[in-house]
Automatic annotation (TrEMBL):
Pfam family, one: Radical_SAM
SUPFAM superfamilies listed in its UniProt record: Radical SAM enzymes
Listed name of the protein: L-lysine 2,3-aminomutase
Residues recorded with modification N6-(pyridoxal phosphate)lysine: K349
Obligatory cofactor(s): [4Fe-4S] cluster; pyridoxal 5'-phosphate
Family: Belongs to the radical SAM superfamily. KamA family.
Entry keyword annotation includes Cell membrane: no
Organism of derivation: Litchfieldella anticariensis (strain DSM 16096 / CECT 5854 / CIP 108499 / LMG 22089 / FP35)
Residues that, per the record, bind [4Fe-4S] cluster: C137, C141, C144
Top-level division of the source organism's lineage: Bacteria
Keyword field contains S-adenosyl-L-methionine: yes
Domain Radical SAM core: 123-346
Amino acid sequence: MITRSLANVQTDSPRHADTALISVSNEPQTRWQAQLAGAIRDPRELCRRLELDPGWLPGAEMGHTLFEVRVPEAYLSRIRRGDPHDPLLRQVLPLMAEGNTIQGFVQDPLEESGHTPRRGLIHKYHGRVLLIASPTCAVNCRYCFRRHFPYHENSPSRAQWSDTLAYIHDDTSINEVILSGGDPLAASDRQLGWLTERLEAIPHIKRLRIHTRLPVVIPDRIDTELLDWLSATRLQKVMVLHINHANEIDDAVMAACRRLKDIGVTLLNQSVLLREVNDSIETLAELSEQLFEAGVLPYYLHVLDPVAGAAHFDVPDQEARSLVEELRTRLPGFLMPTLVREIPGEASKTPL
Ligand code: SF4
């Protein structure tokens, strides 16, 4: 999310195919990389493993042709078998509805293509830039606003990175760099360490923010190697997780969050309000409570970005506002996420 998130570890889809942000790694696979490589990428396999009625298969196969299926085992294990309405399954199962053409739902809903002054760099807001640090994700969320993003045009080679870093160096108004993607933590620790060293050598950069879903879908990603380069940097560290439902937070996710907190990472969460996933007071309240248990503060609750193929997840603004108003009567203020919409051309996210 995204959600909203350096080189890919292994890629084979058209979307994530060829280019790596830094370089393609030839390092031996770690435990998490093996899990990433072993993620389910076949809609038939997904339906079979989850014991879904065969009636779901045609939609899954059609949607897969638009945006490939990708579900790691650690996430699959939290989905109830035989329940097509499981809130985690809803996020990863392609449906026939993805093929519908709906007015207002477009390929680039945030008009990011107009804000890429360098390959792999998006500069929309004052003081911060976003780097497309990986063209791949550990999970493909069906509602992703970058499901049509041209990653092949935005994946610099290591040589091209110097141009991107020079842009950041030359603009002293930038004090924060956001690693996004894809999912930046799909890059290897060697590659992330390489980039972080170069960013911290730029005197006006204070903060490194990482937007990632990997600690949620493959908690083993938070391993010693990652903690080593992250602890070593002088930069302030913020990790913005992407969790939409309390069922996504199991013991392994809790442990991963604890490891990050122990080295001084500020943990925040952004969610997307999604029809039939988290569009109820009880679900949103439980999510905030579980986040806090994990040491994560709710940050944003985004309304859906109108991306083509995801209209069936949409919750109208008025309903979203009502939900949040009622949520405010249930939770202490520090557990309330801010309901926002991202409007192309605006200088910040817009509270609703
Ligand atoms: S597909 Fe990737 S970038 Fe999109 S929301 Fe999911 S984890 Fe984030």
